[in-house]
Amino acid sequence: MEDFPLPIHRYPASAVEDVLKRFAGIGLADLTDMQTPFSGYTYLEDTDAFYTTTSDYSPGYFRCTSGEIEPDGDTALLYGSTAGSLSGKAVLKLVKDGENWYIHSFTLASPEQSTVQEEQLPTTEPEGTLPIPASSMFGLTGREAVLFDAAVAQRYPRDDNDIVLPSLREYGSFEENGKTVVICDLHYDFYYDYTGPDWEWNGGGATTVARFELDAPGNVCTGFAEYPSGSLSDWIRDFCGPLAMQNADGAWVLPEAAGDWFPADMNLLQQYLEVIASTAPSSDAPAADSLSDDMIWEYVHEKLDYAHWAQDMTAEYEDIVRKFQIEDSKMSDLPGDVSQWPRYYSAFVDYFSAANADLRYLDADTIWTKDLSEDRQSLIVTLTRADVILMLSYSLQTSQITEVSTRRNAVLQSVTGDSITAEHITLLNASLEEDLQTLKALNIPPQNYYYGYYRVDSGELYTYKVDPNASVTIYDIEQEYGAGEDRLYTFKTWRDFAAAVQENEGLLVQPYTLTLKNGVVVKIEEKFYH
Fold this sequence. Notes:
- The protein is an alpha+beta fold.
- It is built from nine helices and 23 strands.
- Helix content is 19%, strand content 35%.
- The protein starts with 7 loop residues before the first strand and ends with a strand.
């Protein structure tokens, strides 16, 4: 069980009995079968417990928006919407027994099945007003753009205010009857009944395998099919051509995915909303610092879900990561007794829900990268924007987040014995992989960094305190200060560098990267810019 790839949840039968009695007024003895009513669950008689696993996240819940008590006084109808496998508008029926109310609808009734007229269901905005998502909104080009737009076309146009955003990953392609057939993993994120900036998060997701047929030039999708239900093995055999292969058990399977998920490294919903906001007339919509708690929850979870791991995901490292996540999920020492997500998800939600949190780190163009500390006791998350890099550390022992450091590029204007005044700048070097990924995330066209560098001066001056032990590393090209063959020279203390500036103000010319901890500069490194 320790090596199982998914978190396992254990629910003692006594706990299930209590929940059924509390909310539905029935017990396990009232169920006709121990398996069927708990779809996706396994009941083990030996342990008298139910078990399930957590895989792709697709929440199912009922969000109540209004309700009424029927004339008999013993029946209540709650109106709202649902997510997950039962999605859309719904009615939940409650019945009164003594002083308690119990859920009577063990499967949600649709509004059409209720006695209430459709116009009594609350609505917040006219339906069908949102633009159709397009590949250009996410910086996609070529075949990726064709596949994305074809996936969108399967869900649009719509007559509601749901937002549906696809992401894809290719397994490979082959030629068939003069067409190029591409086989992909296809994931849809659903955001139900979007009503504007004050929308309360309500969404889910679903993943399947799809077949796209492209014309000879490859710029038009002329055919589409997705795995519906039933035997996936049979579908792969019938629809995936030479990519289909049989495993040792004789089942038809696909090879490992040949590419990464796209669109990549971005919050798709936020990117979509920002694009449509930028093309819409100005309004009095609240700023990012007034995001609802549900939106912060959604952005943080999506950022963590799609964040790349800094190290190569070898089998050994995957095992280390899995053990960390399972350990962080445990609620007790009982085997398999874990929560749905590791605790660090909640810790990051709390961090960005704080009053002074900088919500720009949740923007679509901020890149999150995950890593584990050397002792495997902390999760290190690096948040990279064009102008600043924030590093946060989550402790497995305390379940708390601390700020390790903040790094930002700047041009030094003046120095004193214990402080600096600097102008913040955006400076990205396309020859550095980290900077190149940021350039791509910002959708900055290559012609804007034709010579390999992208620079924007902010004109904003800031003064920082400097730690007396802060080191300063420069590129001593002329070896004026005794640099070695690598031309790097480090002033060991801030006093040494401040004294050198008094004699050579040329040290202020080149851009530097400042590393701050608790608002104090602890290290300065010249950003190579020649």
